[in-house]
Amino acid sequence: MPRTTADHRAGSGLGTAVAGMALIAATYGMARFGVGLFAPELGVRRPELAGVLGWAAAAQFTSYALAAAVAARSADRHPRAGVLLAGVTATAGCLGVAVAADPVVFVIAVFVGGMGGGFASPALVPIVDAVVSRRAAATGQSLVNSGTAVGVIGAGVLAPLVPSVGLAWVVMALVCAVAAPATWYPVRARADLAAPRRAPDAPRSWRPLVVPGAAAVVAGAGSALIWTFGPLAVTGAGVVDAGGVGGLWIALGLGGVLGTLTGVVVERWGRRRAWCLCAGASALAGAGLALSVGTGAAWVAYACMAVFGAGYLGLSGVLVLWSRQVWPDAAGAGTSVLFIALAVGQAAGSAGFGVLGESVGFGTLGLVAAGLSVLGGLIPSTGGSPALDSPKSAATRS
């Protein structure tokens, strides 16, 4: 006899959340953000790619946004297909980067790999909501979101252990290829994930997503500096040896593990205060990393990468919970919309910092990034009803 949704929730739904975390680790921490991690070595081993690293990052953010846009229309109805698409695109992108020597081929490979995260996050939101008990749903979503930190740590550990950049990307491709079916298999037969989560003609207001969407664009632009150019600037200035770049990303990942607490923070403080706190951490990291480049203090660089990891993973976690609270009947689509906004800001920031960096120093770039993060953090406080953002409301909707 088929099991009901209640029967499934009675089991250990957090196991599925752990599998989802592994998929996010593969598609985000490795396939997507691995470009920034390996940028210094790519520039040395494949000098013909050095001039397009900034544009490759912008292409990756753009492809992520495009994939998330597709997922916005299908994630709540076909989340399992989204999981498999995430695995296919991330695996193909990693393999492309592994062999790419031509700048055009490299940018195309990065573009394809960036789609993985865009398909994964929106698909996992309805899956976790369906499998994990309602009381633990916010924790389950935060656990999945922390996969980015896990993936970044894994990539950081991998970097010094492999003899070549190409082999590292082959290993990451294998991780992506395994994580997707591992996430899909436990929910392959769930009937509640095959049914539409709302009537096709049900009206839905976009207004609740306007303010967090605007905040995500601005904060995303500020975060792009560290994701794309942080390790390059730190190693280029001699603050950290090029061989120690993996340690910077491990620090980022360890800080990002704090993202598992996002659900608790939102339930106690409300999503606006939680967003402002995380944006403030991102701003502090941007300014601090610029200080480390100027002073040569390696410990400051490591500390700022950890603070940035906590801030950025917190920001993305708040966006997931925000979408679940304002669009509870279509949380996957809402997550897509807000993550698209975040990626649009990151794409613009990557391209903008790349152009601006040709005429100003990293110190100025760090201050600009910090300013954008502060502005993005303050935007939610300017719109919406504070009553709808009370901790009590957040806990109830979660």
From TrEMBL:
Protein localization: Cell membrane
Membrane topology annotation: Multi-pass membrane protein
Transmembrane segments: 12-31, 51-71, 83-101, 107-131, 143-161, 167-187, 208-227, 247-267, 274-293, 299-322, 334-354, 360-379
InterPro entries: MFS (IPR011701), MFS_Efflux_Transporters (IPR050189), MFS_trans_sf (IPR036259)
First-listed, main subcellular location of the protein, grouped into a coarse class: membrane
Signal peptide: none
Membrane listed as a keyword: yes
Isomerase keyword on record: no
Keywords tagged on the record: Cell membrane, Membrane, Transmembrane, Transmembrane helix
Full protein name: MFS family permease
